[in-house]
Amino acid sequence: MKSLPSDLETAAQRFGSELAWRPSDARRVIEFLRDAGYAVLGVEIWTSEGASPKVWGWSVFEVHYDGDWHQFVQENAARALSELEKPLPTQGLVNLTWIDETERGK
Question: Which range of residues forms the domain containing residue 84?
Answer without folding.
Answer: 8-99
